[in-house]
Write a structure and sequence with these properties.
The chain is α/β, with parallel strands linked by helices. The chain has 9 helices and 8 strands. It has a single domain, classed as Alpha/Beta hydrolase fold, catalytic domain (Rossmann fold, 3-Layer(aba) Sandwich), CATH 3.40.50. α4 packs across α5.
Length: about 270
């Protein structure tokens, strides 16, 4: 569904019944591309999916975005659909948005789940030059780079080599069937928001809600030390690093991820 939020139309979906769990997607990723692990949570939780500004079916205005702005979008959405308080799960850039949400609107958050993300700013562990070049190429492919090459580069950052080898045709079919691709202006503006985010390092101790930090030990987009920084700085945070898992650990380790999330949420 589309709803007016601040200066944009924002797309969201509500699935299941129970305590609300809002899932915030990452950079240039819409709700259409969430790993399907969330479907296993529907027996106990009401899962709300959304498209951040710039992606999917939400508006992509051509002016400067910020991580804080995208957190405010979600708070406005919560108010508009009468959700007073929710569990918040953010992945990758969505984890940055989730941090701003809980830091600025703690009364809205029952618990926090941060996946494959970092505190941003100078205290975060940066990606390698090789991965930076891959990200730049996939975000704005040069004319001499084919769609197949873009897909292969993307998969090499998100998945483990064995997973790609085994699932290449499935991944290709999924990539070619995306109904609502992120427009180039949305990619630029979201990338700008990530680059300009001052980070949360000095504020992490202010997070007082129960927190779970998750990530893959082979993540090349957010090196695992980032997860440890978050878990050490957030009071009483739980840390779970999935063995032999890449950035897209929620897909490759789906059943394990669901078990870890349910165990965490059931204690709250």
């Amino acid at each position: 569904m589309l709803i007016n939020v601040k200066d944009i139309e924002m797309y969201y979906e509500i699935h299941g019944k129970g305590t609300p769990l809002i899932m915030i997607p990452g950079y240039a990723v819409s709700s259409e591309l969430w790993s399907p692990f969330w479907k296993q949570l529907l027996d106990r939780y009401q899962v709300i999916l959304l498209d951040n500004r710039g992606t999917g079916r939400s508006s992509a205005p051509n002016f400067e975005y910020s991580i804080k702005m995208m957190a405010e979008d979600i708070v406005e959405l919560m108010d508009a659909i009468n959700i007073r308080k929710a569990h918040i799960l953010g992945g990758s850039m969505g984890g940055m948005i989730a941090q701003e949400l809980v830091l600025n609107y703690p009364e809205k958050v029952m618990s926090l789940i941060l996946g494959m993300t970092s505190c941003g700013g100078p205290h975060s562990i940066q990606i390698s030059e090789e991965v930076q070049k891959k990200m730049q190429t996939t975000a704005n492919p040069p004319p001499d780079v084919s769609m197949e090459e873009v897909m292969e580069l993307t998969w090499s950052m998100f998945y483990s080599p064995s997973y790609v080898e085994k699932n290449r045709e499935i991944l290709k079919k999924e990539a070619m069937s995306i109904k609502y691709p992120t427009p180039l202006i949305g990619k630029w503006r979201q990338a700008q928001a990530v680059q300009n985010w001052e980070g949360s390092y000095d504020r992490l101790s202010d997070i007082k809600v129960p927190t779970l930090v998750m990530g893959g030990e082979n993540d090349v987009i957010f090196p695992p030390e980032n997860f440890r920084i978050l878990a050490e700085k957030i009071p009483s945070a739980n840390l779970h690093v999935f063995k032999d898992a890449p950035h897209a650990f929620t897909r490759e380790k789906e059943d394990q991820v669901v078990a870890v999330i349910l165990k965490f949420l059931e204690k709250i």
